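Good day; I would like, with your permission, to put a structural problem before you. I would ask you to consider whether the tokens describe a fold that such a sequence might reasonably adopt. The full record is reproduced below for your convenience:
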Amino acid sequence: MTDPTAVLQDAFRECMARVPAPVTVITTMLDGAPYGVTVSAFASLSVNPPMVFFALDNRGSMIEHLRQAGRAGVNLLSGGQAEAAVTFARKDLADRFAIVDWTDDHGLPRLSGVAAWLRCDLLEFRPGGDHTIVLAQVAAAEPLTDVSLSYHLRHFLEISTP
């Protein structure tokens, strides 16, 4: 017999795959060690004060790293950075930062070549089912390129203005 909950979850996943999502890498630094994870559940929240939100899987360690650090970098990936998205999504890779180009920006890891960079210095955590929603107040914002990376129907797409 088919589990109706599993059927609904599968249908929900398929529906959500049809929603184009921005591809971001959330980063933080603890005791000089960089941490990062790929996130597609990301959006702006408020202009006054400037705020964004993103969601992290409760099974990962990034939530605890962010709780301890209290700060986050938001790297909005640009076209051509699908490999970085995959790198930071992998759970089996010990040192993701060894294979990407990055710099320290006010104590947060900033990936090179991103479409935009946000530094968030105040974080709030809220439960969201099997994820944790992070509300982040933006302390610095820098738009860099007009070509962003999006994820749609399980494929990466470059989005740019015509």
